[in-house]
């Protein structure tokens, strides 16, 4: 306790002056100096004289505490009106009806395709497998997978145009 008191008497004015130069605010420098001295008290067991002087260690702690305080101060305030935090608007009834009709038309068009092509489309677009993964799963060459998917799209396009 006596050693810390001596350390406090020796370093607190110097730390306060250093922090005053950084903050340009008397109260902030005083608060950060107190916080620095508490950190030194808590971390005293971590000091290694082989790694450098005690004063360098102490002023490093003071600088890090100042940086932390500065970062907290620079953090933007929470804005509840931020567009990223506003939920998406509910779609209108007409849009929902159109989406439902489009989905039904797609399902009807998929029923016109051979099962093999439906499976390739399901793997590619609903399970999001790559063409090489689909080729490995089905045992088909990758070129065949690509051409069958392209053929399925052509047939889907034709079927959807007929449904409309």
From TrEMBL:
GO terms for molecular function: DNA binding; sigma factor activity. It comes from the Bacteria. Residues 7-75, 109-157 form the RNA polymerase sigma-70 region domain. GO terms for biological process: DNA-templated transcription initiation. Keywords: DNA-binding, Sigma factor, Transcription, Transcription regulation. The keyword DNA-binding applies. Pfam families: Sigma70_r2 (PF04542), Sigma70_r4 (PF04545). The keyword Ion transport does not apply. PANTHER family: RNA POLYMERASE ECF-TYPE SIGMA FACTO, RNA POLYMERASE SIGMA FACTOR SIGZ. NCBIfam families: sigma70-ECF. Belongs to the sigma-70 factor family. ECF subfamily. This is RNA polymerase sigma-70 factor (ECF subfamily). It comes from Devosia subaequoris. The lineage of its organism: Bacteria, Pseudomonadati, Pseudomonadota, Alphaproteobacteria, Hyphomicrobiales.
């Amino acid at each position: 306790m006596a050693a810390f008191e001596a350390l406090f008497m020796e370093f607190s004015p110097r730390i306060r002056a250093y922090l005053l130069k950084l903050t340009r605010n008397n109260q902030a420098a005083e608060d950060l100096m107190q916080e620095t001295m508490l950190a030194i008290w808590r971390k005293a067991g971590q000091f290694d004289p082989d790694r450098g002087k005690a004063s360098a260690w102490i002023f490093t702690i003071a600088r890090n505490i100042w940086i932390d305080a500065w970062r907290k101060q620079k953090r933007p305030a929470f804005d509840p009106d931020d567009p990223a935090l506003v939920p998406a608007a509910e779609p209108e009834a007409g849009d929902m009806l159109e989406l439902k009709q489009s989905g039904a038309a797609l399902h009807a068009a998929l029923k016109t395709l051979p099962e093999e092509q439906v499976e390739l489309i399901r793997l590619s677009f609903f399970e999001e497998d790559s063409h090489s993964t689909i080729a490995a799963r089905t045992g088909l060459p990758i070129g065949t997978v690509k051409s069958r998917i392209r053929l399925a799209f052509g047939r889907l396009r034709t079927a959807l145009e007929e449904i409309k």
